[in-house]
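Q: I'm writing up a methods section and want to include an example of the input and output format. Could you take the sequence below and give the corresponding predicted structure tokens, formatted cleanly so I can copy it straight into the document?
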Amino acid sequence: MHSGIASRNRQYKACSIDNAILAEFRARAEKAGIGYQTMMNDALRKYLSQASRPLTEQVLRNVLREEIPEYLARARSRPRTKAK
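A: Here is the clean output for your methods example:
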């Protein structure tokens, strides 16, 4: 549980994500040894840096499906660090 205090560059927001999408992020992030929210944030950031079209629900779903495998491949190649 978080304290409700956001970091300087992040805000806590509620949003609706399909159960299947969320489950897939969680499963893949666990296998990669990273946080699923970090994985989702990185996928969104990459998309927005390359985006020339509006971000619709369907575009977001497509981006997430495309980015998860690439992100996991990169994450697996990084050494894991244990949480303190």
